[in-house]
Structure formats: structure tokens, C-alpha cells
């Protein structure tokens, strides 16, 4: 028997079995290789699939997180919106309050201005017993605080009012005023402030713009008569009316006191015994 | 601007008006107010002290406000001082004349205190 010849196995039926040939073995081996390659390819595909799924999973997880964050943001926005509304309401309220304060501040400023004018006018009028000085101060008040350079002071004498001092026109050009005649005469008779509604800057002696009766107690001492106002004066204000009232009372008293002081030569001022007598009688 | 108080000079012959203007100006924090009776008195005070603003009337005895303005503009110390005119003269030509001579502001009487205060504050940059 040849060396490479192996004895044939016998089949169960006694028929000898052919040993596998090298080609068959190679075939089997090739199939094994192919199968292994297929397994490797499948493994690769599956690993790739796992990676894809992991990525998908991550994306989905992120989306879920984003969605939650979105919900949070919405809630925050809602809260901020509410806060904004509250702040807007508060702002509106504060703004209204500020406007109110501004308005009150303006009112106080106006009042302060009004009181300053009245105080200074009153203070000046009562600062002297010199008749010329008192009249000069009263004129100053009409020129500077009221705004006229065309007026006169009349003093009552029986049923007439006599011009005694004038600003802006010669005294001689002024006529007497008869009580009860014309707007000035009626103002004197009624002892009430007269304010014309005509053009303030248009000068007229017969139709004065303002008449201020000067009253001391029950007596009408005289009257300031304003014939026209400065070009920049467009209307009679509340402050002007108060200044006219102040002149009607304080200027009247100051003129009266100054005139009395002239008559008495100020002797009674330092006469303590007369004070004692009158205050304790 | 210096840290110390600023100084204003009010030149007005009418005591009532002078008192009223000074009263208004004294409400400005950091402003000290001096007063003069007329232009000559005003010039004297300007020669004695440095002022930051001058407020003057026009119609005054001895020396009127316009003469005062022209002299102040020639004075080395005060040639640049802001000048406010407060006057009864409301005509446009009076205003023009004052501004030409060197006034910085022109206010007509009767005055409103806030108007004077705002004008002075503006000119002083307060």
C-alpha cells in the first residue's frame, strides 16, 4: 500500500467511505471565511446601528431637556410679564404722583411769589411816615409790581376828587373827578375797585382802566386811577387785584398816617403820658 | 465753576423792586446777593468785588442801566459777566438797544420770580 494512501473507512453498510477531498475542505474553509466575513460585516453594521441609536437617544434626551427648559422659560416670561405689569402700574402711579407734586410745587411757587409781592409792598408802605416817601413807594408798587407808568393819585375833597400827584402825564392835564360821574366817579362813590375790560395799553383819562378807592375806616381818603398799562401788560391777574386791594387798605392807611404825622409834627409819638391816658382810660 | 458761592449784584433804584429781585435770587442755592441803588453805586461795588452776574434796571437816577452795561463791558475784570436787564421798557427797540450794548437777557416788569430765577440759573449754568 502506498504511503499516502490511507485505508478507506467502512460505512455502516460495510461500504468504504471516501475521505474528504482537499477541494471540499477548501470549500468548507472558504465558506467559513465567508461566514466569518459576513459575521464581521453584520457586527460592523450593528455597531454602526448602535452608534446611530445612541446619537438618536442623545438627541431625543436633549430635545426633552430643551422642552423642559422651554417650559421654564415660559413660566419665567409669564412671571416677568406680571412683574412688568406691576411695575408699569407703579410707574403710572408714581408718574401721577409726580405730576401732582409738580402741580402743587407750581401752586406753592405762585403762592410764594404772590406773598412775597404782597409782603414787600406792605412792608415798604409801612416803612415810613414821610408823606412824599409813602406816595413814592405806592407809585413804585404800581410801576414795578402792577406794571403801569400812566396813573395818578386823587384825594377826596367834598364831592370831588382832586389829582395831587401823577406819573406819566402832567398833573395839570388832569381834571377833577365828580363823585358818581363816569366809571371813576362811580367807583369812588361806591368805594369799590373798578377794573375795565378794555384794551389795557390804550390810554384814556376819561375811561380809566383801574380805579382803586383808598379807604381808611369809614372814610374814603382818595383814589388811585390807572389810565393805561405798560405795553407788555396784557391782562389783570389775581395778584394785581390783590395788590390793588392792598393799596386800597395799606396805602390809604400809610398816606393817612403820614399826613397826620405831618400835622402833629410827630410830637405825640414820644408822648408816653398820652399813651398811658388813652390805653388805660 | 468754583466750589464757593457765586455772587450776584442787583442794581435797582426802587427799594421795593430791589427787595423783590433779591428775595427771588436768594432762593437760588449757592448764590449770594449784593444790592446797589443806582449805576454809580453798582460800579463802585463792581470795583470792590468780583461778581458772577449783574442784574440791573434801566431807568435809574445818577447813572442809568444802559450806561452801566456799556461801562461794565469795558471793564477788564467784569467784561464777560452775564448781564440781565429788568425794566419797564417793553418796546422791541429798547430790548434791541440793551442787547446790542452787551446785555445777555432782557426781562420786562412786572416780573415773575420764577422767570428771574430761571434766567439767572441758566446764565450761571446752575
Plain-language structure description:
The complex is a heterodimer of chains A (281) and B (126). Chain A has 281 residues and is of the alpha+beta class. Chain A is 58% helix and 15% strand. Chain A contains five helices and eight strands. In chain A, the strands form two sheets. Chain A has a six-stranded antiparallel beta sheet, with helices on both faces. In chain A, strands 1-2 form a two-stranded antiparallel ribbon. In chain A, helix 1 runs antiparallel to helix 2 (131-146). With 126 residues, chain B is an alpha/beta fold. Chain B has one domain (6-124): 3-Layer(aba) Sandwich (Rossmann fold). Helices cover 42% and strands 20% of the residues of chain B. Chain B has five helices and five strands. In chain B, strands 2-1-3-4-5 form a five-stranded parallel beta sheet, sandwiched between helices. In chain B, strand 1, helix 1 and strand 2 (31-36) form a beta-alpha-beta unit. The N and C termini of chain B lie close together (9 Å). The mean pLDDT of chain B is 92. Classes of the chains: A alpha+beta (281), B alpha/beta (126). At the A-B interface, helix 1 and helix 2 of A face helix 1 of B.
Instruction: State the order of secondary-structure elements of chain B, H for helix, E for strand.
Output: EHEHEHEHEH
CATH architecture label of the largest domain in chain A: 2-Layer Sandwich
Biggest sheet layout of chain A: 6 strands, antiparallel
Cα gyration radius of chain B (Å): 13 Å
As for the number of domains of chain B, it is: 1
Structural descriptors:
A: 281 residues; alpha+beta; Beta-Lactamase; two-stranded antiparallel sheet; B: 126 residues; alpha/beta; Rossmann fold; five-stranded parallel sheet; 20% strand
Amino acid at each position: 500500500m502506498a504511503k499516502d494512501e490511507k485505508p478507506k473507512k467502512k460505512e455502516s453498510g460495510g461500504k468504504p467511505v471516501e475521505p474528504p477531498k482537499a477541494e471540499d475542505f477548501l470549500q468548507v474553509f472558504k465558506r467559513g471565511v465567508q461566514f466569518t466575513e459576513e459575521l464581521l460585516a453584520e457586527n460592523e453594521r450593528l455597531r454602526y446601528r448602535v452608534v446611530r441609536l445612541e446619537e438618536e437617544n442623545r438627541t431625543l434626551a436633549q430635545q426633552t431637556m430643551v422642552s423642559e427648559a422651554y417650559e421654564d422659560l415660559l413660566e419665567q416670561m409669564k412671571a416677568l410679564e406680571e412683574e412688568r405689569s406691576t411695575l408699569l402700574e407703579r410707574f403710572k402711579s408714581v408718574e401721577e404722583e409726580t405730576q401732582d407734586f409738580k402741580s402743587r410745587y407750581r401752586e406753592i411757587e405762585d403762592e410764594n411769589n404772590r406773598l412775597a409781592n404782597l409782603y414787600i409792598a406792605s412792608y415798604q408802605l409801612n416803612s415810613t411816615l414821610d408823606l412824599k416817601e409813602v406816595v413814592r413807594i405806592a407809585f413804585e408798587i404800581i410801576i414795578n409790581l402792577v406794571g403801569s407808568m400812566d396813573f395818578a393819585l386823587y384825594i377826596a375833597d367834598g364831592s370831588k376828587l382832586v389829582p395831587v400827584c401823577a406819573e406819566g402825564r402832567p398833573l395839570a392835564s388832569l381834571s377833577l373827578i365828580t363823585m358818581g360821574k363816569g366809571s371813576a366817579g362811580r367807583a369812588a362813590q361806591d368805594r369799590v375797585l373798578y377794573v375795565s375790560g378794555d384794551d389795557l395799553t390804550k390810554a384814556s383819562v376819561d375811561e380809566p382802566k383801574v380805579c382803586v378807592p383808598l379807604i381808611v375806616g369809614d372814610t374814603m381818603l382818595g383814589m388811585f386811577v390807572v389810565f393805561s398799562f405798560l405795553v407788555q401788560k396784557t391782562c389783570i391777574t389775581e395778584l394785581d387785584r390783590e395788590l390793588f386791594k392792598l393799596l386800597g387798605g395799606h396805602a390809604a392807611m400809610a398816606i393817612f398816617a403820614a399826613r397826620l404825622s405831618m400835622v402833629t409834627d410827630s410830637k405825640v409819638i414820644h408822648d408816653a403820658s398820652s399813651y398811658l391816658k388813652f390805653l388805660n382810660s | 465753576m468754583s466750589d464757593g458761592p457765586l455772587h450776584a449784584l442787583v442794581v435797582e433804584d426802587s427799594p421795593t423792586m430791589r427787595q423783590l429781585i433779591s428775595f427771588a435770587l436768594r432762593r437760588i442755592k449757592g448764590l449770594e446777593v449784593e444790592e446797589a441803588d443806582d449805576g454809580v453805586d453798582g460800579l463802585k461795588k463792581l470795583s470792590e468785588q468780583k461778581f458772577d452776574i449783574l442784574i440791573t434796571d434801566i431807568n435809574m437816577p445818577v447813572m442809568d442801566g444802559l450806561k452801566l452795561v456799556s461801562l461794565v463791558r469795558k471793564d477788564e475784570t467784569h467784561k464777560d459777566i452775564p448781564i440781565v436787564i429788568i425794566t419797564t421798557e417793553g418796546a422791541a427797540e429798547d430790548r434791541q438797544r440793551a442787547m446790542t450794548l452787551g446785555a445777555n437777557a432782557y426781562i420786562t416788569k412786572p416780573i415773575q420770580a420764577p422767570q428771574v430765577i430761571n434766567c439767572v440759573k441758566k446764565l450761571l449754568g446752575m
